[in-house]
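Repro:
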Amino acid sequence: MFNNTAEILRIAVTLDEESSSIQAGPSRPSRTKTKHNPCLPSRLPSTAFLQREADAIVPRSLKLARQRSPSPSLTGPSEPEDDEELISPLEDSHMEIDPTQKRSRKHSISSVFSTLSSATSNSLRSLSSPRSKASRPWSEPESYEVLSAIERKDIMFLMEVRDRAFHLLLQPSGGVTPLVHAMRVGGVGKTHQEVAIVILGAFSRYINHLTDEELASPKTKPILKKLRTNLKLAIDYGMQAEQRDLIASFLQTLVMSEGDQWVRSTVASVAYALRDSINGRPIETAETAIRGYAKTNLGKVKVNAALDEYIANATSDLVMMAAWSLALASVEGEPIPTYYFARDDRVYKAFSEATYKQREAIKVKVPRRLRRQLKILEEVMEGRVISTQSKVEVLARKLDEGEEL
């Protein structure tokens, strides 16, 4: 017989320890304190703003889609039947697209809504039903409210005003226009420069959306006159306050507000200089014209780098537009649209595409002198290694001084 007392005591101690640990429960690690990192989310666009963008984009997108591959499924049952811009697919299939129809002068600022699909627009249309619009009726603000929005940097409100009551962006309040107020509030620090750019973009957008008939309308002329007055006041204030960053943009918008007449007449003068083999100086003619326009509208302005670059860009554009207009007497093609003038490299792209498409016809039909001028313009204006001012200097040596001609 064995004495197992010691073994029983050891087992009893082990069981007691396990039971005490179970009652106490597992120990949990202490939680680390969360660090506070507050953030202010950006304000989302209003439903009305999204709806306007969709209404402007979707009809054009549908029309382009039908032109590529007419299909009844593109329109969908939810599209309004009385929309003037929407043509039924059956009618569209019997129509030929005429490229010489009413020219579009629209030029849009980059928008995040340019990629909205038709499905997205339909959902937005359902969200912005007449019932929801009735709950938030639009009431035209006062002029002082526009100035207050500028001080708050309320871009969304200003874009609402741009779309619904554009004239308020031209209306002075307390002796100051909205554009000048944005420049004045910003001061030396230019804290409100983005607001001034939004207002300037609204001016440009209004001009770009005008058709030829609207430009000639008696109702439009007073608005354009006010717009030019606003720009000239902004130019004067910019000169006094040493805010010259936007002067070139002001001048560009001024040229746009003149319509096609000034650009067409200047292109004709440069074309005459290109034809004149004895006294013709096309670069000098173009540069003199644009500097004269700047002097008339800017007064005794101290030329800065931005203005110099604009003048060089405008000079090269005038010469390319004039050269291509002369080539159209011998080859088929369309004139370079005047609303491309002095807008980055739009004229150069249109010029290079047109000359490339007609390169074989140019070799055979275009006179030798003009053919060499077109070649020089293509070679000099190509690339981004050198500035536009340097390119214009090279063109002056070759076209005005007769180098390599």
